[in-house]
Design a protein that fits this description.
The structure is a homotetramer of 292-residue chains. The first copy, chain A, is of the alpha/beta class and 292 residues long. Chain A is 36% helix and 20% strand.
Chain lengths: 292, 292, 292, 292
């Protein structure tokens, strides 16, 4: 690793502060956009205004999402607005921009700078690391919302991607009876090797009535009216798929089945971890650049 | 099992209602003491007053605890007071009384009746079954109170009884780094077989500074001033030992370490399960009487 | 599924017989090439000569490998040679040929027929299903060859593909201390989630001296002279990568380190399972053809 | 620990040599009775004859079993007979004798010496530590004897003591479908928490026909004629209970069901581990004497 290159961390919530703290283990880190925040992070240099920045940064870390309008940085802990273009002027020409969920208008602005842009939200490392806090968060919700233990409860998980795999590992150890439904035969095989029952997506409607809890991870209308009609009234549906999710929420509400669309869990239930994941993703990218 | 013997379930909170529901799978069940409660439990016959009981009961199920004063049944869902002696007059002479945590003055009253008395709180079955909701509740608290995931967190568990064993199974699957400390060599061996590190109780003070979360299950002053001085300020202590617990709470508070004395978790986090466990304990006892 | 279509199973060892048995649950199955074999498989019709076949087959299942010379079927249980072309003449024009590891000269012959050809050895289903018997076989070898338990032994696994994942699951539950080394960060992440230590392939030479057992799954010269020099003399190397493997066997022998190149484990240690996997792969392919 | 007290290790097979090696980490160790053995164990001083012993020993370690006749030490690696009384004359008056499975006539001789006698075979530590090699050995046998994988095989385990618990942990991770049968409700509860099905011993005859493999750990005639009649012909029975075991072996043989009475597995499949366990048991005992 380079000797103390400079990172500017700008905007965002607690996650950005934890990201800054993590980055400060290897970089000189300045943090801007946190004047309403009392958090302290040893070794991070908090600056009240961008003008206080004594040198240009090698890298800038923007929050997730970077901006809500393509003009100002998303900075909930800051009373004053921070212009995206102002921050970019603090970056060296050969610098790197790290941002999460970069929208097209923000991307246009980034593209005008000479720096390279990385959307960490699209990086496999980032998404895999977030599978753990997402799964833990989903389990915490399931525990909180139910008046029974997870032990011996009947749980259906749709899809067998990253989050599902972590869910399966934990829930199986808790003694839940987990069934995975997915399209691909190899996914079903892996789910069985992991200790679950496995059912083709084309057939899960035949077993959905047994479920006490359903975790949806498929970003498509999986739990539609037809399926919801077959679900127990006391069941709990936790949708982990990004908007618009995979549940007919309106209809579920009508039938009295409790549904929760659990989005952005890492930031909500484990902001320290969520921030460290953002930092690690950036660190991995920088390390790979060096290695090759 | 006998054909439809009669159970009278009297007093208590939601757990008693779920116990009644479970018992109604095999018995005719009357429930008294729930007039302020809107819960419905198919097949359970709710009676507004003991006088409405059309026949004598073979068994009575009292709540946990049975009474707070040895005179009235503990019945938070009932506006009118229910005399213990009134309930006993509804029990057949060869009946059985099931009560939880029966205090001496209540026991005196029970002993005056000809019926046999069983304190289910002292039954091994009951305590083992409750290890699961206790462990799940403890994990839920740990998740809720921390801003990091349990994955890779360093967890210390004192003692290796029922609750610890369930905690270890779940936390290991979650990827936490679990260390168990106990007095007996065989307990440490079992903890290692379960995948933990294991440390003699006489030596755990040397490793306690590494812990992010400490679950205490030993009903003795284990986490005293000396130990607390060695614990990280950001650590979380969850004491699962019954009152007075095993933590110097006052001193921990002074040092700013967060402590939670988590008591009676099954009833709080999983009342359905807690009620069913009470019912199952009674059912097991009745079944054994039949078998032998 | 079709009503009793006809399968001809020809040649091969015990695996083919178990495959025939499995297929006979859904098809009329004829088996040729087993005259020196006393195995019985209810519902399978053994024929002594191809001429005894009373009807054309919808499907033919050849063994793994199909042929050693592109002329005769690989048929170790049969005294007489069976010509590939003779068998093909028993297949319907719209039939399907299933063969394993089809060599180019055999493929030429198959291509002359109008039937479709499937090499099940290249199908993902087949390879995933075989990960389980391969891992179990590898563990059996490790147990047999060592005078210590696997519990608490230090195990290194190179690569994190199918077989490694199954190995990790079992060995971790056995209490072994498993380290995975691989190239990709996400593989290392998954290995950690599975409960292992994880080390970049570029760095594993620094920890290889600790290993009691090394399972190699990477088909490249991973355990070369340099690495072997760092391995304990009492260590055991089990190479699971297909020929030529990933170990400098000559050099390991010189240094006195025990190495085993464990090839084709499913057929050797679990022929029933290996045969059923071949049948299941064919069944899956037929089922998918129907579905779409 | 004392500074270099003296241990005399006498007689026995490879296990004794590994025990001596382990003890030599903390003691000065002399080993007698190994003249036909080429094993080398650094730091252990092999003596050809007891007379070569230059000083009296603080402790003597005898093998498992100590003697077959109460006169000579059990010493299969030694051509000359070694008198028990000769060895005792080399022990200090306040010494400690460690022996395994001490028979009454040997015990009489030990009792004549002033030294304290410990039968490590009766120590809980010893038996628990041996559960691991016993379970691994049992699984190795099951793998070797069967032509199918353990994955998804249906396994019945009778009893839920030490060995069963280790078996359950490993077999469940291997994806076997494990059922435990035992007498006590709490044992069944623990088995369920460990992820198994659980059936009362009084009812297991109703499910025994499903089993592919049966591990018996109960030292009583559990698998009698009646039960054997219900077991599949292709099933494998592995009896781990000490002689006479829990299987009607004669009858099983008649019916063609394969049975294996697997005794003394640790010494057979993992002599290094078995020897270290003997040493550890002695070390634990010495450590406790010091502590209190």
């Amino acid at each position: 690793m380079d000797e103390k290159k400079v990172f500017l961390v700008v905007g965002g919530d607690m996650r950005q502060i934890y990201a800054a703290k993590k980055l400060s283990e290897e970089f000189t880190v300045y943090a801007a956009g946190f004047d309403c925040c009392t958090a302290n992070a040893e070794n991070v240099i908090f600056i009240g205004h961008l003008l206080e920045m004594p040198q240009k940064a090698d890298y800038i870390l923007y929050p997730l999402p970077v901006s809500e309008n393509g003009i100002f940085v998303n900075a909930p802990f800051c009373e004053n607005k921070i212009l995206l273009t102002d921050t970019l002027s603090l970056l060296k020409d050969d610098g790197i921009i790290f941002g999460g969920k970069i929208d097209p208008s923000t991307m246009k602005i980034f593209n005008k700078s000479k720096a390279e842009t990385v959307d960490y939200f699209t990086i496999e490392d980032f998404n895999l690391m977030n599978a753990v806090p997402t799964a833990e968060g989903a389990i915490q919700i399931a525990m909180r919302e139910r008046a029974s233990v997870l032990y011996k409860s009947k749980i259906l998980i749709t899809g067998y991607g990253r989050i599902s795999k972590v869910l399966v590992k934990i829930l199986s150890a808790m003694g839940a009876e987990v069934t995975v439904t997915a399209r691909k035969y190899t996914d079903l095989q892996w789910a069985e090797i992991a200790g679950c029952k496995a059912v083709y997506l084309s057939e899960f409607e035949n077993i959905v009535h047994e479920s006490d809890i359903i975790f949806n991870t498929i970003p498509a209308m999986i739990l539609d009216k037809n399926i919801i009609n077959k679900i127990k009234k006391e069941a709990l549906i936790i949708d982990l798929a990004s908007k618009p999710g995979g549940v007919d929420f309106e209809y579920a509400k009508k039938t009295g089945i409790k549904t929760i669309h659990a989005l952005a869990l890492p930031g909500k239930i484990a902001p320290v971890t969520a921030g460290e994941i953002i930092a690690c993703t950036a660190l991995n990218i920088l390390q790979r650049k060096e290695d090759f």
